[in-house]
């Protein structure tokens, strides 16, 4: 299996510094800073990038699990809300809320929700983040 790479460079102090983050494929390169992470500023931040990775992974896992059970999803759309807050004086990612919407023909809501929850536990990024509270809101369209 391949090893995926990303790179980040930080220059300067925490408050006044700035950084760049990029992915190996070259399809994304962005700026990040204290302001983009803890306040409002132009650029990205680690939590936003983690959220994007989690949403993408979850959507793929959910689609796969639906397919394994004979359902053919038209579209799975997932938003990831990553909470960072101070806990005992240090910053921590305390919770992630995944909100997924699925267009899946010929599925009842109970089955949809059951598979959605299985995907929450089974996606590789969720497994990597097992120490974090992960909640799911799944909506069948």
What does this structure look like?
The protein is an alpha+beta fold. The chain is elongated and about 55 Å long. It is built from 4 helices and 6 strands; from the N terminus they run E-E-E-H-H-E-E-H-H-E. A 3-stranded antiparallel sheet has the order 1-2-3. A 3-stranded mixed sheet has the order 4-5-6. 33% of the residues lie in helices and 37% in strands. It has helices at 34-38, 46-68, 109-122, 124-128; strands spanning 6-11, 18-23, 29-33, 75-87, 90-103, 133-140. The mean pLDDT is 96. The protein has 2 domains: 6-38; 46-140, 2-Layer Sandwich (GMP Synthetase, Chain A, domain 3). Helix 2 crosses helix 3.
- CATH fold name of the largest domain: GMP Synthetase, Chain A, domain 3
> Share of helix among residues?
25-40%
How many domains comprise the coordinates? 2
What is the highest CATH level, the class of the largest domain? Alpha Beta
Query: Residue-averaged pLDDT, rounded?
Result: 96
List keywords for this structure.
elongated; 3-stranded mixed sheet; 3-stranded antiparallel sheet; 2 domains; single chain; alpha+beta; 37% strand; 4 helices; 141 residues; GMP Synthetase, Chain A, domain 3
Short description:
This protein is of the alpha+beta class and 141 residues long. It has helices at residues 34-38, 46-68, 109-122, 124-128, and strands at residues 6-11, 18-23, 29-33, 75-87, 90-103, 133-140. It has 2 domains: 6-38; 46-140, 2-Layer Sandwich (GMP Synthetase, Chain A, domain 3), CATH 3.30.300.
